[in-house]
Amino acid sequence: MTAHTPPTPPFRDRRLPFAKRVDDLLARIGLDEKIGFLHQFAPAVERLGVAAFRTGQEALHGVAWMGPATVFPQAVGLGATWNPELVRRVGEAVSKETRAMRLKDDRVGLNVWSPTVNLLRHPLWGRNEEGYSEDPKLTSAIATAYTRGLRGDHPRYWRTAPVLKHWLAHNNETDRDTSSASVRPRVLHEYDLRAFRETVEAGAVAGVMPAYNLVNGRPNHVSPYLREQLRTWTEEELLVCSDAGAPSNLVDSEHYFDTHEEATAAALRAGVDSFTDHGTDGSKIVDRVKKAYEQGLLTEADIDAAVRRQLSVRFRLGEFDDHADTGAFDTPEHRALAQEAAEQAVVLLRNDGVLPLAPDSRIAVVGLLADECKLDWYSGTLIHRSTPLEGLYERFGAERVDFAEGVDRVRLRTSTGAFLYVREGGADAPEGDVASLDPALLAGRTDLPPLTTDDVGTELALVEWGEGVLTLRAPDGRHLSVAEDGYVRASADQPGGWVVQETFRLEPHGKGHLLRHIGTGRHVSVAADGVRVAEEDPEIFELVLVERGEDTVARVAAGADVVLVVAGNDPHINGRETEDRTTLRLPTHQERLLRAARAANPRTVLALVSAYPYAVEPGSLSALLWTAHGGQSAGTALARVLAGDVSPAGRLPQTWYASDADLPDLLDYDVIGGRQTYLYFEGTPLYPFGHGLSYASFSYGDLATRVTDDAVHISFSVTNTGRTTADEVAQLYTRAVDPSVPRPRRELLDHRRVTLAPGKRAQLAFEVPLSAFAFWDVAHGRWHLDPGPYDLLAGGSSEDVRLRTTVVLDGDPVAPRAVRQRGLDAADFDEQSGIGIVDRTKTAGDAVTPVGDRAGELLYRACDFGTGVTEVTATVAGEGSVEVSVDGGPALAFLTTDTPSAPYDYTALTARFTATGVHDIHLRLRGPIRLAHVGFSG
Predicted confidence band at 854 (pLDDT cuts at 50, 70, 90)? Predict the structure, then answer.
């Protein structure tokens, strides 16, 4: 008798399409099991052989938070390469390392939360380092390349499943979980949605993560755009993963819902499929979903929809087919790619001929970042490292390079006359390789002796990072840090961690200073058992200056042929996740060092290594370069560019403004009305979008265009007229010559990075769909192409135009608004002043309301009243008035409600109003009133 072999269940049958296999598996999972899947850490279903699964693995520029990995340049640096093919290879390397690391550690996830496609609208955003560009076209090109690399090239299985961050219009850390971005429809469609849409449509995206903030008064985690926009862009099942803690924010900080059951149900119905909340503990989310289901707020079909999308991703990852992908880790190819990416990310902003450096140059390297290889919150742990100083030693020889960090060296004297003392050996590394340990782990150690006091004390390096925030470092290189027990130790390799424990602030107090620890908010106190932070008995310190940083800088600068000042930011301080910057200026300490270097030696080169732009005065500099923190090969890459081994070809991915006065308010998301980014900015930037110099020169010619039914075909040539092989980034822009609505000053259509030897010429061809010339017509809720002339501009940046021509495109004139038939949705205005957009209901729609105490103004152009109307009706909530006028004349109708109401309790106000033909309508809103719609009849 032969044993009976159970049939293979359909979900294990590789011959079936994924959709049928998902349906079969879903039907086998019980309701309680499906509810368990909704938390980030989904438990196993052992009876079906389904393993545990978690969403989320950070991989922004390398595998993060999981120990040693190849660290590539920050995302903004990858954006600065303007090289999608390079970025695709970086994504491929990251996906291979993810797979390889997972084989050794099952905590490493294959659902990677990257890239970030939020547009770099405002350079003070703390997370500027995480985005690619202020331009949606460039952002989508780089993001698409990265997702393709992360996905891999297998025809059936994905190596990793990328999730785009952060949906939607997210550019502020200040009050990020309670602030609302007011995003008018044109900005929504032409700007914020566009980067997501083009990346999703390219076909290598597994899902998105909603952002913490609200958009138009509604939290992103219950955004109707997930259903109305995102899920219409592809036939793939997209997985929506919440941001950490955001589901609870819907009640706890945003107070958008009264109960967590309501909030969880609303998020699930809106399209959130995986809830990242309460760490690894899924019990609270499970309990909320169960109660919501019992209360009738959810159906099993709602739960099934989310679980189906999760399973779809897991099948694509090959989980149910035992698809083997061993990946690759820290290979020579990955190391070479990290260096290539770092080299391509360097942007030369100014050069009076001092660069490239002569081989026999004597170089003074100075500055707080000269011997640093900084990590950020989304970095992996360095396996290899290269600082600018190390790179120059390697390239020019240590005998030709002099170094001065430029830190102030101080002793801190207590009120008793003793000094703070770091016991020798206090920073001894734990067993193992220090380079393989995260700074946060070192900072949290409690096995090291705390600081004490003695008669001589320890000379500490004091670095001020701006706004009075400082770090203190012992002679052996370890930063003073505070662990959970409150004691101060010299224990951290670098500042780091979610709450940075290595930053302090000196506060004047009498004839001395209190030393406040920023991480805890407490002052440093000296006790018999050691130095600690405490709520009481703060120590009053006298700051004894041993040596000024600018004095050491001046000494080494004076004897050099050229001075390289390396300045910038620490990615964990004053501008990071949870913290926006407040200024474009360099920290005062670094400005002092730069002035000292320039005074000692006019041949001064400034290299900014930073996660964001700065406003500097380049006029007295011989050269100025910028690079984002470049990962493990940052120093080698910078040295090779300075030496001329590599001609710089990075280009700015965002506008560098000349001063803070050029910036809009951080929370002003109206790039059109606020004239923001290179698209609309009318001032003179410090350096424009797309700017970057080379050691070669290039000429442009042979411009030709051809218009077909669905595209504009453009070609031109680029020739290297210099004496060195170099890359050029040829950029193609457009401008509507006679637009019917405000349009960008110029807008990127496409670009190409090409490598040319001296005298060599490349012919570049672009096919631009006509849709690229369209704008969102708010009057009719659709894309519209204006007929008429469009300039085509080719050159080396948004302002460096070498070739120009004009094409005439066919289109339809914008039709007047048919207000007699459709009325006016309030948020579909053409212009506004003093108005914010808010949620019409908790589930869908927009309304408008005055911002602050002033009246708000709205303009709707070309409203067609046909043969005439005699009545106007305003759908409003709240209390206040709406005044209606025509063509800027006096008010013809007044609609007022004096009865306060709930935000979503709308009523219709009616008044007499007569108009015929086509006119502009002006509305003035007074008081805390919400206007959703205006209708006309009669």
Answer: confident
Distance, CA of 274 to CA of 266 (rounded, Å)? 13
Rounded to 10°, the helix 18-28/300-316 angle is 130
765-785 residue pLDDT tens? 999 999 999 999 999 999 999
Return d(Cα 933, Cα 491) in angstroms, integer: 61
**Coil, strand, or helix at residue 382?**
coil
Token couple for 270: 């809106």
Average pLDDT value for the chain: 96
- Active-site residue flag, 135: no
Q: Check if the beta carbon of residue 116 is closer than 8 Å to that of residue 56.
A: no
- Three-point CA angle 58, 61, 65, nearest 5°: 40
Q: Which helix (H) or strand (E) holds 467?
A: none
DSSP code string of 94-110: HHHHHHHHHHH-TTS-S
- Write down the pLDDT at residue 443: 57
Convert the pLDDT of each residue in 30-71 to its tens digit.
999 999 999 999 999 999 999 999 999 999 999 999 999 999
Dihedral sign, CA of 166, 169, 172, 174? Answer: negative
Percent of the chain predicted with pLDDT > 90: 95
Cα–Cα distance measured from residue 784 to residue 810, given in angstroms and rounded to the nearest whole number: 11
Other Cβ atoms within 10 Å of 864 Cβ, number: 17
Cα gap 481→487, rounded to integer Å: 8
Q: Supply the DSSP string of 662-713, one letter for each residue.
A: GPPPTT---TTTTT-HHHH--S--SB-TT--B-SS-EEEEEEEEEE-SSEEE
In whole angstroms, give the CA distance from residue 736 to residue 772: 11
- Residue count of the chain: 938
Shortest CA distance to 266 belongs to which of 809, 883, 839, 684?
A: 839
As a whole number of angstroms, the distance between CA 221 and CA 264 comes to 10
Strand 363-366 and strand 401-404: pairing? Answer: parallel
- Domains of the chain in start order, with CATH, are 10-321 (3.20.20.300), 346-406+549-653 (3.40.50.1700), 415-538 (2.80.10.50), 696-809 (2.60.40.10), 819-937 (2.60.120.260)
Among residues 243, 325, 408, 662, the one annotated as catalytic is 243
Q: Most distant CA pair in the chain: distance in Å? A: 98
* Angstrom distance (rounded) from CA 802 to CA 755: 19
Query: Which amino acid would we find at residue 451?
Result: L
For residue 895, the SS3 value is strand
Q: Which residues are CB-contacts of 265 (< 8 A; sequence separation ≥ 6)?
A: 289, 292, 297, 298, 302
Cα–Cα distance list, 111 to 64, 161, 302 (Å): 13, 5, 22
Model confidence pLDDT, tens digit, residues 150-199 = 999 999 999 999 999 999 999 999 999 999 999 999 999 999 999 999 99
Dist. CA 496–CA 512, nearest whole Å: 29
Residue 302: both structure tokens together: 């709602």
The DSSP string of 786-815 is --EEEEEEEESSSS-EEEEEEEEE---PPP
First-to-last C-alpha distance (Å) of the chain: 88
Neighbour-count burial for 877-892, b at 16+ CB within 10 Å, e otherwise: bbbbbbbbbbeeeeeb
CA distance 708 to 267: 45
Facing residues of 577 across strands?
Answer: none
